[in-house]
Amino acid sequence: MPVIAPWPAQSSTASAPREGADDAMAAGTTVDHLTETYSAHYRSLLGLAALLLDDTASCEDVVQEAFIRVHSARSRVKDPEKTLAYLRQTVVNLSRSTLRRRILGLKLLSKPMPDMASAEEGAYEQLERDELKRALRGLQRRQREVLVLRYFADMTEEQVAQTLGISRGSVKAYGSRGIAALRVAMETPV
After folding, report:
1. What contacts 101, CB < 8 A, 6 or more positions away?
2. pLDDT tens digits for 5-61?
């Protein structure tokens, strides 16, 4: 989330002295302004979330959480004209986080093994998965994030770059270093 500075509260006098302007800057936005923004833009922000998420309940949760976050940061928002842009960005970021949690949750859930030939085969595969998870935990944070999003969440390099806020070249670099580190970790006996 961007760092934002305080904005002046609306003043009843047009020519307030500089000292009064500093007091207004410290006050930040009013709850009334935020309430008006909520009333005017709730549906459009809900529509934005609906384009990013697949169920209404999650969309409503994301939009409400965005308003809560803006409400708690209202004293730091510098320009009231940018409140809507700040809300939109917050909705997008929260939607991304929601999707990321869902995708990772689905990918990391243990799936039942269909038609297992023997208990030994299932146990061996479970050991391999555990070994892979242990090796992933040993990677640097960015390498682990890139590999999980790229290979477990089936995202493209561009999607991973956008999600993590890094360049596509960085995704490639972290990915190749992460795979090399995984190979070393997987070959080393525990």
Report:
1. none
2. 333 333 333 333 334 434 443 344 677 777 888 889 999 999 888 888 878 889 999
What domains are defined for the chain?
A: 18-105 (1.10.1740), 112-187 (1.10.10.10)
CA nearest neighbour of 59 among 95, 93, 88:
95
Handedness of CA 157, 160, 162, 168 (dihedral sign): negative
Whole-number Å distance between alpha carbons of 128 and 134: 10
Q: In whole angstroms, what is the distance from residue 135 CA to residue 147 CA? A: 12
The stretches of the chain forming alpha helices (DSSP H) are: 18-27, 31-52, 56-72, 83-108, 119-137, 141-147, 157-164, 168-187
- Contacts for 183 with CB less than 8 Å, ≥ 6 apart: none
